[in-house]
Amino acid sequence: MNSQRGFTLLELVIAMAIFAVLGLASWRLFDSVVRVQQATASHERAFRSLQRAVAVIERDLLHITEQPVVLNAGQLSVQRSNWRNPLDQPRSERQELTYRLLGDVLWRESRAEGSLTMQRQKLLEEVVDLRWRLLDDSAMEFQLSTRRYEGIRRVLLLPGALP
Asked: Has residue 82 got a pLDDT over 90?
């Protein structure tokens, strides 16, 4: 009587093949999850930078002084009052602001009143199109398109306009 202790070669080969198929399926599932996570993170970063840029533009347009608004192709120049102090009183300082589209980058340039130093901030990258339009001296419209997001349109009331 020959009692067998162990597995035959055929049983080992079948077990290894099943293990390899399960490993390959698990790897593909893991790889697809990682790719979706990377795409989602990239989408989120682009959306956050777009939100930040629009918020900066909105904040600046809400503080425009009564000086004229200058619109050129892909460029907006305004004068804004500076930040409000803790007592919510306007400060006397003014800032000259220019939003300029150079290539596919939207830049925000600011200079404080009486200063010779121009501060330049890269506001948004991958901009495809940017248009500014003044509506009845009471509202400003801007349309923005990036590679990922097309046709973002905002209409903002300017200071002194009736709601």
From this structure: no
Determine the 3-state secondary structure of 163 from DSSP. coil
Closest CA to 129 of 76, 74, 75: 74
Cβ count near 40 (within 10 Å): 10
Residue 131, classed as helix, strand or coil, is: strand
**Total-model pTM:** 0.74
Percent of the chain predicted with pLDDT > 70: 87
Cα–Cα distance for residue pair 111/129, rounded to 1 Å:
25
List Cα–Cα distances, 14 to 11, 21, 22, in angstroms: 5, 11, 12
What is the C-alpha to C-alpha distance for residues 81 and 113, in angstroms, rounded to an integer? 10
Rounded to a whole number of angstroms, the CA Rg of the chain reads: 29
DSSP alpha helix (H) spans, the chain: 9-62
Give pLDDT tens digits for 117-157: 889 999 999 999 999 888 887 888 989 999 999 989 999 88
> In sequence order, which residues have a C-beta less than 8 Å from that of residue 112 and are 6 or more positions away?
82, 93, 94, 95
| Max CA separation in the chain (angstroms) | 107
Tokens standing for 50? 């777009």
Query: Amino acid identity, residue 21?
Result: V
